[in-house]
Every structure is written in structure tokens, then in C-alpha cells.
Design a protein that fits this description.
about 525 residues, Hypothetical protein af1432, six-stranded mixed β-sheet, HD domain-containing protein, Nucleotidyltransferase, domain 5, Ppx_GppA_N, 3 domains, five-stranded mixed β-sheet, Ppx_GppA_C, alpha/beta, HD/PDEase_dom
Length: about 525
């Protein structure tokens, strides 16, 4: 008898640990039969292995900090019943003459088997992670991961990597070698820039060849710089920086002020992690160099980093052993993450697709009148797919459960604003319309609130037109007149429930269009 695979149940739980120069990052994920994965838990430990610079030797104190961090990570893995641990060491341990001692002690004292990976492997895995996290498209971009000991540079798009290299330009290494003044002196900056020019000649050549205009930054240094530019508290784990983008002008404005700060002033910044205070400057100077010398126009942040690449690499290697097939239907991380969430929440697919189809038809009719764009159309479609996932928790208040699930599901490829739009539009598909007394709605900017109202107005009508959940409306025609809109619905059976549902939810759309709304039914 053939065994049935339940794609809604994970078949393996693993942990991926990135043993970096500055910090150890661990992520625990459940992997599903189609090769998709969902985060169960995370832990980050700042260890600063190179507190005295990259001297090719780990101090006893640094090794002790690292081992204590691994013990805590191992305890978390055991408590979460992790089946397999992937632990990869990078620059600091890779180069240290006593790195082997640390690896041996990791196994005996912390119960974690550590593997040292090459710089090229590290760069390639980071590229996989970024591509999984960010919607890149055909455009060639420069992916940059600034660590403590090394910096990984990858040039590519969603189809290929044309260049990947790990260079010894990490912030701890550069701070120890070139920074001897506080605030950092002009002479320090000049020496750093001269060193970057020498080391980055090959990167410069490939970037110019492919006319790269966008940098995608991953990991702590790049995230922390973005957090400071955005004015977001770097310690606030509830704030996602994934897809956050800033331009060259915004960076130059930030740089001009930040580079003049001494340690005491940097310590006052809530947006800067305390343990990066002494080593952040070379990273900031490197970003400025890339913008100035490579002609970069925008920097985008990816929260996908080495540990995510480790997981993706594991899934590819273990295909056939643990997984029935890989989830390759959606290469776009936005679409893929939406459908992974839908599957995990046992979505009402027939109803949701039917509502989405009608919602998009309504959108296309009123796109110009409501001053909406193609990005709004995409978010409306996803909101329609997601609007009933709150049933996964319970029927009661399922619209509010949908809001919570969407906001807290780490959807890849979306900005904070886009996630909040989808979450709120799904929330307002039933019951109350958007009101400022609602905290999740009130906290959004005015332009975002306007988009939520318009898209909610459309979704409410579309959902009302499938009130039975049986796709009774076979065809929808929209007669858009000067003073009124008539929705002509052609139904398979009695239309009363759909007419009632549509009219009951039409008030918000009526207000947005400033027109009367009628629904006329033509049963089969």
C-alpha cells in the first residue's frame, strides 16, 4: 500500500549555526516534504572572537565565550528536539592556528560538531540565502555580507551567480589594522579607502561590466547600518529590516554625522548594538566606498544570511532522502512565502482563489479612479488568498487572527509596509471597516492607511459575492456609470445569499468611489 505524504506536517527539524567572528547565530527550522521550511526558534550570541584583532590566534577568553555560547545553543536545540545540527565556522576560526582546538572542544564540551567552510562556500551559501529572501529579478546586483573577519561579495540575479568571493575585509580585522583614533581620523579613513581600492579591483571590474546599481546587504553590520538610517531600534526583534531600502543620498547624510562620533556618542545611539560600537566604523566606510566608487544608487537589506543558505544547501543535498520534491514552483520569494504560509494554515483554496479572481476584476475596473498601481494589485491578490487563514486558529475572530498570522510569519521579499497592508486588508474583509481606534491600523502612515481602505473596500465586496463559499457566482460583469456602479452576477443557483453578502459589504467601496452601488443577479 502506497504511503501518503502529509505535506502539512514537517518531516525534519534541524538547526543551522553560523559561527562568525563577531557573533554566533543559530536558527531552528522545521522542513516540510516539499523542501520549504519554517523558523521555530532563533538565538544570537555576541562572542567577539577577535577582540584584539585578527591575530590568527584565538585567546582563551574568546574561546571560552564561544564555548559558552555553543552550550546555550545546544541546550536550546535539545529543548526544541532538534534532529540534526549544522554548525559552520567562518573566518576567525578558519584562520586561527588554534582553530582546531576550538573545534575539538566544541564537540567534547558543547556536543556540537563544527565544520570549517571555505570563503568561497561561505559566499555561495550567502548568495543562496539572499536570493531566497529577496525578490531580485533579472537585474544584476551586488550582494555584500560584512562580517568581523571577512566580507563576502556575490554578483548575480535570480538565475545565476557570475562572481562570488570572500575577502579579508571584515570590520574587526579592519578596525584592528587601520583605526587608531576616536573619532576615526581622516588619515584612518584614507588608509582604509586605499586598502579597499587595492583589494576590490576584481569586484569593481565585474560590477561595472554588469552595470550594477543595487547592493543587497546581509548580516549584522549591514542590518545595523540600515537600522541607524531608518531610526529603528536595532535591539527590537519585532521590527523586520528585510527589503528595507535606502538611497545614496540618505546614506551620505547619515555618514556625515555618524563618522564624527566618538565612542561615548556612539554608545548613546539606541539604534547601534553596543558590541558593535568599537568595530562599526570600517563597515560604514566600506559602504560609502562602494556607493562612491561603484556608482551604487540603492542599498537593500536581506535578513537571509549564511545560516539560511546552510539550510537551503542541506535541503538540496538531501533531496530524495527526506523530501518528496522541492518547492520550485515559485522562484519569486514573495509568491513562494505566501503559498508556504497558505499551505501551513490549511487555506480554503477554492473560496480564496474565487474571491481573489473577483477582487482583481473589481480592481482592474477602478484602478484609475482609486489611483492604485500594480503593486497594489499584487498585494490585493495575496490579501484575498490570505483573508481566511485565521480559521487555522478558530472561526471566532478569524479576521483578527489573520492579521496576527500575516504580521508574524516572516514573509520573505516584502517590506514592512507591504506586510502591514496585506495583514490589515485581510483583517478588514469582514465586520468593522478601518478605524483609527484600531491600533494595528492607526500605527500605519497616512499613505498606507489610504491604501488599506481602498484595497479593503474591494476585498469586502468580492468576499461578499462568495458568501456561500461555494463559488455560486459563475460570471461577474461591472457596469461602471457616472453616478453608480452595477455589479451583474450570473449564478449557478439561487443568488440571494451572494446579493445580500455583496451589498452588506459594499459601503466602504461606495464611499471610496462616491457612487451608488447595485447588485443585479441572473440565476442560471
Amino acid at each position: 500500500m502506497e504511503q501518503t505524504i502529509d505535506n502539512n506536517q514537517p518531516n525534519k527539524r534541524i538547526a543551522a549555526i553560523d559561527l562568525g567572528t563577531n557573533s554566533f547565530h543559530a536558527v531552528i527550522v522545521d522542513i516540510y516534504p516539499d523542501g520549504s521550511f519554517r523558523t521555530v526558534d532563533k538565538l544570537k550570541e555576541m562572542v567577539i572572537l577577535a577582540e584584539k584583532g585578527m591575530e590568527n590566534h584565538l585567546s582563551e577568553e574568546a574561546m571560552d565565550r564561544g564555548l559558552e555560547a555553543l552550550k546555550r545553543i545546544r541546550f536550546l536545540c535539545d529543548s526544541q528536539q532538534v534532529e540534526e545540527i549544522l554548525a559552520y565556522a567562518t573566518s576567525a576560526i578558519r584562520e586561527a592556528e588554534n582553530g582546531g582546538d576550538f573545534i575539538q572542544r566544541s564537540l567534547y564540551e558543547a556536543g556540537v560538531k563544527v565544520q570549517v567552510i571555505s570563503g568561497k562556500m561561505e559566499a555561495e551559501m550567502i548568495g543562496l540565502a539572499v536570493r531566497h529572501s529577496i525578490a531580485i529579478g533579472d537585474e544584476m546586483v551586488l550582494m555584500v555580507d560584512i562580517g568581523g573577519g571577512s566580507v563576502e561579495f556575490i554578483v548575480g540575479n535570480d538565475k545565476e551567480f557570475v562572481y562570488s568571493k570572500s575577502l579579508k575585509l571584515g570590520v574587526a580585522r579592519m578596525a584592528a589594522r587601520f583605526v587608531d583614533a576616536d573619532p576615526v581620523s581622516k588619515e584612518n579613513i584614507k588608509k582604509l579607502e586605499q586598502h579597499f581600492e587595492k583589494e576590490l579591483s576584481a569586484v569593481s571590474e565585474i560590477v561595472k561590466k554588469h552595470k550594477v546599481k543595487t547592493v543587497i546587504g546581509s548580516s549584522g553590520t549591514m542590518e545595523n547600518i540600515a537600522a541607524m538610517i531608518a531610526g529603528k531600534n536595532a535591539s527590537d526583534t519585532m521590527i523586520s529590516l528585510n527589503e528595507y531600502t535606502y538611497g545614496a543620498k540618505a546614506f551620505q547624510k547619515f555618514y556625515k554625522k555618524f563618522i564624527q562620533l566618538d565612542k561615548s556618542k556612539r554608545l548613546e545611539l539606541k539604534t547601534l548594538e553596543e558590541k558593535r560600537v568599537d568595530i562599526i566604523n570600517p563597515g560604514v566606510i566600506l559602504v560609502k566606498y562602494l556607493l562612491d566608487e561603484f556608482g551604487i544608487e540603492n542599498v537593500k537589506i536581506s535578513e537571509g544570511a549564511l545560516r539560511d543558505g546552510m539550510i537551503i544547501d542541506f535541503i538540496k543535498k538531501e533531496k530524495g532522502k527526506y523530501f518528496s520534491k522541492l518547492n520550485i514552483e515559485f522562484k519569486d520569494p514573495r509568491k513562494r512565502s505566501i503559498h508556504e504560509l497558505l499551505r501551513k494554515c490549511n487555506w480554503l483554496e477554492d473560496h480564496s482563489r474565487h474571491v481573489a479572481k473577483m477582487a482583481l476584476q473589481i480592481f482592474d475596473e477602478f484602478k484609475s479612479e482609486l489611483k492604485l498601481n500594480e503593486n497594489d494589485r499584487e498585494l490585493l491578490e495575496y490579501s484575498a488568498f490570505l483573508h481566511d487563514i485565521g480559521y487555522y486558529i478558530s472561526y471566532s475572530r478569524h479576521h483578527k487572527h489573520a492579521l496576527y498570522i500575516i504580521k508574524n510569519s516572516e514573509l520573505r521579499g516584502f517590506t514592512d509596509d507591504e506586510v502591514n497592508i496585506m495583514a490589515n486588508v485581510a483583517r478588514y474583509h469582514r465586520n468593522s471597516t478601518p478605524k483609527k481606534r484600531h491600533k494595528a491600523y492607526k500605527s500605519q502612515s497616512k499613505p498606507v492607511r489610504k491604501r488599506i481602505k481602498k484595497l479593503s473596500a474591494i476585498l469586502r465586496v468580492a468576499d461578499g459575492l462568495d458568501r456561500s463559499h461555494f463559488q455560486n457566482v459563475q460570471k461577474l460583469e461591472i457596469d461602471n456609470q457616472v453616478e453608480k456602479v452595477v455589479f451583474n452576477i450570473y449564478t449557478e443557483s439561487d443568488p440571494e445569499l451572494e446579493v445580500w453578502g455583496g451589498m452588506r459589504k459594499a459601503k466602504l467601496l461606495k464611499k471610496q468611489l462616491n457612487k451608488k452601488i447595485e447588485i443585479k443577479a441572473f440565476p442560471n
